[in-house]
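sorry for the late reply, my laptop died twice this morning and i had to redo everyting from scratch. anyway the thing you sent over, i finally got around to it. pasting the sequence first so we're on the same page, its 451 residues, then the predicted structure underneath. double check i copied it right bc i was rushing
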Amino acid sequence: MELDITIEKLSSDGRGIARYNGVVVFVDKVCPQDRVRVNIFKQNKSYWLGELIEILDKSPHRVKPFCPMHNVCGGCNLQHIDYDYQLQCKKEIVKDAMGMVDGLSEQVEDVVPSPQIKEYRHKIQYPIRQTQVSKRILAGYFKPKSHDIVNIKYCPIQPAICDEIIDFIRETAPMYNIEGYDEKNHKGLLRHVVIRSSAKTGENLVVLVINSNKPNEKIKDFALKLYDRFDKVIGVGVNINTQKTNLIMTDKTISLYGKDYIEEDICNITFKIGANTFFQVNPKSAENIFRYVKNYIKTNFETPTILDAYAGISAFGLVMSDVAKKVVSVEEVKPSVDLAKEVAGVNRIKNLELYCEDSEKFFLDVIENGQKFDITILDPPRKGCTEKTLEYALKLTKSKIIYVSCNPSTLARDLKYLTEQGAKVESIKPFDMFCHTNHIENVAIINLLNR
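ok and here's the structure:
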């Protein structure tokens, strides 16, 4: 069935939303205010799915994508929309998510744009495959809703040197008899290439994810060739991943040549970032978030005690240390805690306590010891916090919870719980961390006084 419809807005996953006789219709690759002809290929009771046939009238916000691979690559699903309007759409996505709590949508502020909208992505993860006949190595992103590789030679959202490194791997790996991974048969040595690229120095750490229990001689020789080829590649390692899984990297990384980390500067703190370190892919946008949180604390508190939960390499704890009496950071991944200790030492930070422990368990121990903090910073993964964690956070925090989230829906769920316990959401500030995609980072300030 073909329909002519007008796109009203974007859904949280970046699809266009229209209505036809009261039924919601979702369509990919469209822009709000487009009038389009679509083919309805799936009908459910509550919604239909449509495939774009033709744009009848273009939205004034539609632009020509700057990437030639936009129509086939699954990386940047909003690149056909003017950047300023992308920010408006993302604000609406956050507001829609917050609609589950009365009055919360009004707390959503304007989106802080990314300082860079090209070459902003400083962590690259390319799956590697191989053609059946010619045995050419393919490296790129998956096509939308598939595991078919788009063989990308040029990606404008990542540093140009990453294209050069990937192209070298693509051309040189066959010379060392290194085969690309076949996920159907679980064969082939090279599964992924991961690059951590420093915005500070331009240096790069390259990790070859291999389907083997240890690096063999040919992967070692190939890694050495790669290391010698680029002055800006300061380290090459392998990650051991023999699992039949979509997981890109395991926790077992072996450094082969050079350093096993790059350095990045955020708010005058020098961070060391390893292969498995969680760190934001857009350092300059991340710095906007850290400055925002730091300025809020500095303006509203005088040397508070701060609990930094789900801390990773304790980026928040380290950055906030000079406006705090004491910061306690909690992270369950030991290599991240070890890196945080190293960074604290290099930056001569004395008032940071680091604990390698599950956040929920640590919270309970703190409560049982009668300890409280002026501020708790929560920065959980996409799934958000457990209800028990939120319950504990309320008990151990005197004044404010600062909740940093990459998922508006789980943030809204958790804010709903907190407000039901008497907390008050002061503001929700979105930050554009992933330009040209539907993803959006948010910082919520939650007041616990007068509960």
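The chain has a mean pLDDT of 94.
thats about all i looked at so far, will dig more tmrw
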